[in-house]
Amino acid sequence: MSQSDIGDWYRGIPQITRYWFTGSIIVPLIARFGLVSMKSLILSFELVFYRFQIWRTITAVFFFPITPMTGFHYLIQLYFLYSYSTRLETGIFDGRPADYVFMLIFNWICLVIIGFIAPLMMLMEPMILSALYVWCQLNRDTIVSFWFGTRFKAMYLPWVLVAFNWILRGGGLAELIGIVVGHLYFFLMFKYPQDFGGTAFLSTPQFLYKYFPNRRGGVSGFGEAPSFRRDRPDDRGQGQGRHNWGQGNVLGGAN
């Protein structure tokens, strides 16, 4: 693959996913090459609140230690970030970057709070799992393919990843936290208002529309999966109703 091909591929990544993907490469690499200490990038309640090192709440989302033992797992995380963030941004959030940014901000805030309590020093894995979980719930009946030719519905993918990580690395807590946060967003934004007729607790702040304006040609109305609609500044007065969850791509398939 030539440099021009790589450049075309990179420029073709959706805007928000491109920012997230780029940060998840740059931050680990500057730590890997010793330009910044790894200890200055992780989440720490004491250092954030008592020494006002606020940047840790952000760098903890992008940082992952790259070593000979963790390099492959890091690349797998980048794949999931690129693949499922792209599918969300060009699917349910197509043409509405502000709504996608709000989802990421909501998940990030929840993870930071949980990270202070757990404690959890690195948030890259749970942040990626939270986005992947939302896609899997919106495309729960889509058949995805995993390693060794296994095939199952998308709704099971997050749990398969938890089990897979537990077997290979003896972990799984970060993935479980990501699932909890992803489910919280999905429940409050989609499930509760639609299936239970409850109040819509989440709403994208107006200032985000200023910096990430809606684009024409995207999905008609935010919150559809695919037929669910929420009132927005540009589509007020339109009703809500039950929906059939949307369809998506198989794991590892064409984007």
From TrEMBL:
Record-annotated membrane-spanning stretches: 20-42, 54-80, 100-123, 173-190
Extent of Basic and acidic residues compositional bias: 227-237
Membrane topology: Multi-pass membrane protein
Entries under Pfam families matching the protein: DER1
Disordered, as annotated region: 222-255
Tagged with keyword Cytoplasm: no
One GO location term (cellular component): endoplasmic reticulum membrane
Main location class: endoplasmic reticulum
Localization: Endoplasmic reticulum membrane
Biological process terms in GO annotation: endoplasmic reticulum unfolded protein response; ERAD pathway
Record's keyword terms, sorted: Endoplasmic reticulum, Membrane, Transmembrane, Transmembrane helix
Functional note: May be involved in the degradation of misfolded endoplasmic reticulum (ER) luminal proteins.
The protein's name: Derlin
